[in-house]
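FORM 12-B: Structure-to-Sequence Request
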């Protein structure tokens, strides 16, 4: 996982959640120990991006406008999410492991991550002097013109990518470099025909580069809706805890009344 890309993705969805649900009001439909049902939606008007948090012992269910998710870990799942957050934020990688089914469903192909990964490997190859000069233009062309909008197409582009430098030279001293050996041989034939003399030509591959072991590349990121749900869980539990604190404070400030009585 590219952690810089992951953090940026998490922050982007956090900003989106704040815009879409940051003003929701909480309604407590049920609250009895580990059995809770909290609903969050706008106070009035539309109900876009509503969501529910439902807990039973050892499970938390998130449901809303999109896919529902069920997490399972400890008896009090609110305590689990409080204790496993990252500095008050979400912990998507760890929490995805606690989904009760189809954990891979929360991952999706990320075209931006594909581009970033390709460029990182190319830069490293250039630093290690494994990639021929001019490879940047070939990679730019693949990213702009290749079928990289879906994972299958992106991997096909990776497997097909090859960049080489071929040198066509003549005994007379003339020479030229090409990225395609066919172009190099075409130059050689044209050169011999144009010079109309005895010329010995040859074509040599000076360098060639292909991406290696691309099957190991993980080109997926967390689906935005799963990250949205994780932000909703953290935010919703925070609203619930704040309401409990407010209720406790109100009780603490209420005057204590006593009744005096005696036995006859």
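FORM 12-B RESPONSE
SEQUENCE OUT:
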């Amino acid at each position: 996982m590219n952690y810089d890309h992951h953090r940026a993705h998490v922050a982007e969805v956090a900003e989106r959640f704040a815009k879409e649900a940051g003003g929701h009001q909480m309604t407590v439909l049920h609250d009895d120990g580990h059995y809770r049902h909290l609903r969050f939606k706008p106070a009035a008007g539309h109900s876009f991006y509503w969501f529910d948090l439902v807990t039973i012992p050892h499970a938390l269910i998130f449901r809303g406008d999109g896919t529902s998710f069920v997490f399972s870990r400890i008896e009090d799942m609110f305590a689990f999410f409080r204790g496993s957050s990252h500095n008050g934020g979400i912990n998507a990688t760890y929490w995805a492991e606690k989904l009760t089914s189809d954990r891979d469903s929360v991952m999706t192909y990320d075209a931006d991550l594909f581009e970033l990964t390709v460029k990182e490997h190319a830069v490293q190859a250039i630093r290690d002097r494994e990639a021929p000069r001019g490879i940047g233009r070939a990679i730019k062309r693949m990213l702009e013109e290749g079928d990289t909008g879906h994972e299958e197409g992106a991997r096909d582009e990776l497997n097909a990518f090859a960049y080489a430098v071929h040198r066509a030279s003549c005994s007379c001293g003339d020479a030229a470099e090409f990225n395609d050996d066919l172009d190099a041989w075409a130059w050689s034939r044209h050169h011999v025909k144009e010079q109309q003399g005895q010329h010995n030509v040859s074509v040599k591959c000076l360098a060639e580069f292909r991406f290696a072991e691309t099957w190991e590349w993980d080109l997926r990121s967390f689906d935005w809706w799963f990250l949205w749900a994780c932000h909703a869980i953290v935010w919703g539990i925070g609203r619930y805890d704040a309401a409990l604190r407010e209720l406790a404070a109100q009780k603490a400030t209420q005057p204590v009344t006593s009744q005096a009585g005696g036995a006859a």
